[in-house]
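Hey all, quick one. A colleague (J.T.) asked me to put the adenosine-5'-diphosphate job into the tracker so the inputs and the structure tokens live in one place instead of scattered across chat threads. No bug as far as I know, just bookkeeping. Sequence used:
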Amino acid sequence: MLEEFARAKVNLTLHITGQRENGYHMLDSLVMFASTGDILSFDHATDLSLRIDGPEARALPVENNSILSAAHNLDSTKGASIRLTKHLPVSSGIGGGSADAAAAYRGLSKLWNLPEPPLSQDFCARISRIGADVPVCVFSRTTRMSGIGERLEFLTHLPMLHAVLVNPRVAVSTQAVFKTVTNKSNPAMGELPSFFSGQASFISWLSQNRNDMQSAAMSLEPAISDTLNAISSSHACQLARMSGSGATCFGIYPDAGAAENAASQISGKHSDWWVQSCTLGA
Ligand SMILES: C[C@@](CO)(OP(=O)(O)O)[C@H](O)COP(=O)(O)OP(=O)(O)OC[C@H]1O[C@@H](n2ccc(N)nc2=O)[C@H](O)[C@@H]1O
Ligand SMILES: Nc1ncnc2c1ncn2[C@@H]1O[C@H](COP(=O)(O)OP(=O)(O)O)[C@@H](O)[C@H]1O
């Protein structure tokens, strides 16, 4: 049996800089991956099959699953028995479906003895048809992501962060949020310094950048404001922002202890929310 970890994707910044004729939005986003995520396992089999379990499995159908799309995209003639243990909330802005498709791509490439996924324009353009976030999730590394998600620049100089991810248990449609965004032509991210002296200077740079989907998502789903308030008012929080199209928001903290304390504080007040302390970028 072979296992792959599908790490949650967090958009630390998400700037919408334009729109293509096909309706897709041009993005400029700093993406980091979390130490929390879904688990996929793969076994040899004649036919292709998927079973889903885990704490967040309930609403997720096998039909049209992004994992099966990735398998078909890779080689539609081969079989495998795949198990997904779902830990990430569905439709929550941390790319669960994309991370799962990407993990399937990596896992099946190994199971079927295919070459490792290459970092090429052709490859990224091809797999972005499964989902715009799939290319960045295949490599699962700290990345400046642009285009509609198919242009990837890996970054190796950014400090690791201690974070808490919070989802108020409302599913948000990515398409609906993009439709609600009024300004489709915002400035790109500010210049990314080639050196940060530590976490504080990185957070200071992050706070000067934005998530251009945040106010549109908040107008559709008021629970996002409650989530950001709960994170901002937690002890030692240095930055609170929404990831992707929401509703998951993240808080950044100075160390692992502060992140764990904040997670307990937030889940103590909101026992029905999904709250997870983690590291980003490590
Ligand atoms: C917004 C982001 C930011 O990382 O994350 P999530 O909130 O989904 O996690 C992504 O761009 C989402 O990527 P992904 O969820 O894979 O998108 P897709 O399945 O390809 O598209 C979902 C819908 O979003 C819109 N879409 C997506 C990406 C993009 N650059 N422009 C768009 O307009 C399309 O209208 C599409 O109908
Ligand atoms: N393996 C999967 N995990 C999560 N969602 C999936 C998966 N396969 C298909 N989907 C569908 O993809 C959509 C987006 O889910 P997800 O990737 O979790 O959200 P987001 O793009 O906001 O991070 C949902 O409608 C969900 O039903």
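Adding what we noticed when we looked at it: DSSP finds nine helices and ten strands in the chain. The chain has two domains: 2-154, 161-280.
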